[in-house]
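so my prof wants the structure for this chain in the tokens format not the other one, which i didnt know existed until like an hour ago. anyway here's the sequence
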Amino acid sequence: TWGHFLSVYFFSHYWMAEPLRKRHCVSPTSFPKSAIRVMLLENIHQDAVALFKQEGFSIESIAASLSGPELVAKLADAHIVGVRSKTKLTAEVLSATRRLKSIGCFCIGTDQTDLNKAREMGVPVFNSPFSNSRSVAELAISHIIALNRRIPDHIQDLHNGRWNKISAGCHEVRGKTLGVVGYGHIGTQLGVLAEGLGMKVIYFDIVNKLALGNAQAAGSLPELLGASDVVTLHVPDTTLTTGMIGAKQLEMMRQGALLLNLSRGKVVDLSALAAALKSRRIAGCAVDVYPKEPAKNGPIPEDVPMVLAGCPNTILTPHIGGSTEEAQAAIGVEVATKMINFLNAGSTEGAVNFPDITPIKLIPGRHRVLHTHKNVPGVLRKVTDLLAGVGNIHYQQLGTLLDVGYLLVDVSDEFGEDLKANLKALPETIAVRIL
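here's what i got, hopefully its the right format
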């Protein structure tokens, strides 16, 4: 347990080494790094593994995603967990962990993780909101050009032994209007790249965004759909985006327009899209994400329907938007660095489910108390009273998010060894660490 390691570390590294030190003072209280267990699933990039190794952590890295009892068993004693998009960290799975301190989602999305449950447990979740943006934007550009030239149909014809050199229905992208739904990290980069090809860019987002280049905001989604030759979706998985493109919205699009979905699988009604493609109402599509996706590489299971298979001028890819070596390396470094900063300094900068605190550097000779608690009145006073009674407070910072508060306090080295126990005993306490 944490208490066992702390007591051993205290006796061997502090008490014996400094026998003249006041006996009422506690030892250095950082948990031994070699005892911190890091569990990485889904083939997290080796750059991330290298960063964890540099810290001296104990690491296990698995290429596949896990589920069920196997996942629960692997995570039971892990302090740090890293996943990509396939491993589902449900409330049930998280509840079964015993030592979990932080979760890393080595991707953009975090919908594979129960963020509320993690926050309630005092576990910050980190992701990489923009490191693969360029890779996704480049893939979208390639699809826009390919669909306008009907490349999928030409490829299929040749594979089937048919020579069909035609220009009908094939177009340049120059002068066409690109409608970007979701003008975030990916949408803005894509707009800039598209303008370089001579396209006009319009966008729609539910919040006001600064337009880059010559892009112009559309007043509504229907307005964008009716004005675009190509519609590309770059939105998160929320209740607002689920099913946002169905039969009704497809009818709003221009005759012969193109649709791209490289965002989330539940955003588009694939059955309605298939019907629109077969009727030639929509001239082509590129889809990289699906409502249900296989848990591992290999033959597609029967319970994962490929509704768009065989549709004309259709590009289907297996959720590879951010799957480039460059993107995965950048994601690995970004997420691993955030998690290491949390372990070493208590920083929650970039956490998606937790109060965002970027602390000052911990000064030698001081300890840092990290107290996660229920966000109710009076907690700060209780914690401050405990700290003030045992040592000098040099620095403190408090952040709250919904039902959780996170307090970071730097105190002098001279504080009682029962401080951690007293903090844990507070009924509002969720988790306590002392660095």
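also thought this was worth mentioning. DSSP finds 14 helices and 16 strands in the chain.
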